[in-house]
């Protein structure tokens, strides 16, 4: 946590000054429920984007400086949003569940054992019928700098568990100030048991001709 908190002394490369494009697409197509939690929310841009559009939007992050900046932004923009300093591996401590949980860059920072703990933590945070949306660096991103790369198989291996359905994993881009055009990424739609209907296809934000996993 200390290294991430130190990063917020300045402007970390993942802080792009606005919501991630996939979050905008989710909202545009009505795939976000009335209550939403952003895990690893950083300085809160995804949360504030949704709060401005009438959602009950919460954010949680381990980095105190990130939460301080997020709260300051909410005050400056006169938006009603909740920002909490806390651990995404212990979401039960929030004492409530959400229709939607967003993760734009938190999962790919976790070690293997932490990934399992996080998946279990989601049980306490996502309502039956709700969704968890994951955006993470993919193995297609070259070089070694930045977070761990994640494969489709790893996503499926962590989240294919009782009560959950990995509906779709599609290639997209993770916007970053260090990656012109964005870093290669996966976007996964993971549903908690109880959802009715099919999930949105993200062809608008996906790289063409890339492999994808879709469960029908």
Please write out the topology.
Blueprint: H1 2-7, H2 21-28, E1 35-39, H3 45-51, E2 56-61, H4 64-77, E3 82-85, E4 98-104, H5 112-122, E5 126-137, H6 152-159, E6 164-176, E7 179-192, E8 213-214
Parallel strand pairs: 1-2, 1-4, 2-3, 4-5
Antiparallel strand pairs: 5-7, 6-7, 6-8
What's the short story on this structure?
The chain has 216 residues and is an alpha/beta fold. It is built from six helices and eight strands; from the N terminus they run H-H-E-H-E-H-E-E-H-E-H-E-E-E.
How would you describe this protein?
The chain is of the alpha/beta class and 216 residues long. The protein has a single domain, classed as Vaccinia Virus protein VP39 (Rossmann fold), CATH 3.40.50.150. Helices cover 25% and strands 29% of the residues. The protein has 6 helices and 8 strands; from the N terminus they run ααβαβαββαβαβββ. It has an 8-stranded mixed sheet with strand order 3-2-1-4-5-7-6-8, sandwiched between helices. It starts with a helix and ends with a strand.
Features:
alpha/beta; 6 helices; single chain; Rossmann fold; 29% strand; globular; 8-stranded mixed beta sheet; 216 residues
What's the assembly state of these chains? Answer: single chain
- What portion of residues is helical? 25-40%
Continuous helix count = 6
What order do the helices and strands follow?
HHEHEHEEHEHEEE
Q: What's the end-to-end separation, in Å?
A: 38 Å
């Amino acid at each position: 946590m200390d290294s991430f908190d130190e990063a917020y002394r300045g402007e970390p490369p993942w802080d792009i000054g606005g919501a991630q494009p996939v979050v905008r697409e989710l909202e545009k197509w009505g795939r976000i429920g009335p209550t939403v939690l952003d895990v690893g929310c950083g300085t809160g841009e995804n949360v504030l984007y949704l709060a401005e559009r009438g959602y009950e939007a919460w954010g949680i992050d381990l980095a105190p400086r990130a939460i301080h900046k997020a709260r300051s932004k909410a005050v400056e923009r006169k938006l009603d949003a909740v920002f909490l300093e806390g651990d995404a591996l212990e979401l039960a401590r929030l004492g409530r569940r959400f229709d939607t949980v967003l993760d734009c860059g938190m999962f790919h920072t976790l070690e293997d054992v932490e990934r399992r703990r996080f998946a279990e933590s989601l049980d306490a945070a996502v309502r039956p019928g709700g969704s968890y949306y994951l955006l993470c660096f993919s193995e297609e991103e070259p070089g070694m700098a930045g977070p761990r790369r994640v494969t489709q198989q790893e996503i499926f291996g962590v989240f294919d568990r009782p009560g959950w359905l990995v509906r779709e994993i599609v290639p997209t881009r993770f916007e970053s100030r260090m990656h012109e055009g964005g870093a290669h990424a996966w976007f996964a739609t993971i549903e908690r048991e109880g959802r009715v209907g099919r999930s949105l296809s993200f062809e608008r934000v996906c790289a063409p001709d890339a492999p994808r996993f879709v469960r029908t």
